[in-house]
Predict the structure.
Amino acid sequence: MADPARVAVLISGRGSNMRALVEQAQSYRVALVASNKPLAAGLDWARSAGIPTWCWDSKGVPREAFDAALTRALQDHEIGTVALAGYMRLLSPGFVAQWSGRIVNIHPSLLPAYRGLDTHARVLAAGETETGCTVHLVTEELDAGRILGSSKVPVEPSDTPATLEARVLAAEHRLYPAALAKFVRQ
Ligand code: GRF
């Protein structure tokens, strides 16, 4: 089996968590950045940082075909751990089964609360005084796998979804590299 310390980070957009994972890497190495969006800003950053990248525009591509190609790329780069970082495409059940126990994700809430999208607006609408972020294993059920680590963030009375997102994102950038390092060492 491939070395768990060889990590692929999957992105669809700006890739700020991917960048934090690269810049704070300890115990693991980001050996590939993969994306389903050719215009993902994070891809440019990864290329300029000299990290191997793989991309295929997933628009109109059947899920199984896309994930099979992704798996080949992961195998070509001898990847042992897959870290999702703003990867906005559902993984096929076959992919999740094949990589079972080796896919991690970061989610912008204190799981198991606020699974799914638009977490910050829902946290504000519910009048919460605290939120945060969670790193967890990926299973077939959305945002429901074993929790590997979490970090709490206060909600301020003046917060908007944007200000809350920024505060949680800063916590994500500290939590994810630390939780991933611990995960690959276990
Ligand atoms: C982060 O908030 C992460 O928790 C969520 O998607 C966002 C990705 O942001 N899963 P970035 O691309 O890492 O900047």
